[in-house]
Design a protein that fits this description.
Blueprint: E1 11-17, H1 18-29, E2 33-35, H2 37-45, E3 49-58, H3 69-77, E4 81-85, E5 88-89, E6 94-95, H4 98-111, E7 117-121, H5 128-136, E8 140-145, H6 152-157, E9 160-163, E10 170-172
Parallel strand pairs: 1-3, 1-7, 3-4, 7-8, 8-9
Antiparallel strand pairs: 2-10, 5-6
Helix pairs in contact: 4-5
């Protein structure tokens, strides 16, 4: 439990490491379910003012076929700010620069006083130094992750922790009816 107060009038910014979260639910999705990022943002904001929700991911270089473009567009049209780096290492099948980009955004927005609470949606302990810098700027940091893929130290350094397993975040997916995944964030109000 944190000594930092949690106020319903707090401004919240969300920072989502999309590949980290999607890896955690890949087995459960099994082609029939998908993570509903719009519902995730609403649940984690918990009635507080959501001033921005960032999605961090990689994309293929311009001119190459990119299967994630439609996904990024759907999130962007729905209100997310998508930061997609051209940095996917195909040989190693891993993304590069994404964690650093996310950490920079967290710290910069904290120092510019754009939010009171940062919600970090990732289980990656690489974010601990950025979280500590945000906290030293007087901000509260909550971490949201699946218990199967979160570093224990990340949970300990956070001012609050959300167990994503306990939230109804998976929605049925149908190729014919993909409306729920494309509903804008503003519709919740």
């Amino acid at each position: 439990m944190s000594l930092v107060s949690n106020n319903r009038n707090n401004k919240v910014m969300m920072f989502i490491d999309v590949r980290n979260v999607m890896k955690s639910v890949a087995a459960a999705e099994s082609g029939k379910f998908r993570l509903d990022f719009f519902w995730l943002a609403r649940q984690l904001a918990d009635g507080r003012e959501l001033v921005a929700a960032y999605i961090f991911d990689t994309r293929m270089p311009f001119g190459k076929d990119d299967a994630s473009k439609r996904f990024h567009d759907r999130l962007s049209y729905g209100g997310f700010r998508v930061v997609a780096r051209e940095s996917f290492d195909q040989a190693k099948e891993e993304q590069k620069e994404v964690d650093v980009a996310m950490a920079c955004e967290m710290v910069v927005h904290a120092l510019r006083d754009h939010y009171d609470v940062a919600v970090v949606v990732s289980g990656d302990r690489d974010f601990i130094p950025a979280i500590q810098q945000v906290q030293s700027a007087g901000k509260r940091v909550e971490v949201a992750a699946f218990n199967t893929s979160v570093a224990g130290e990340l949970k300990r350094v956070a001012d609050g922790y959300h167990e994503l397993e306990r939230m109804p975040l998976l929605s049925m997916f149908s190729v014919q009816n993909d409306l729920r995944a494309s509903a804008p964030l503003a519709e919740a109000e």
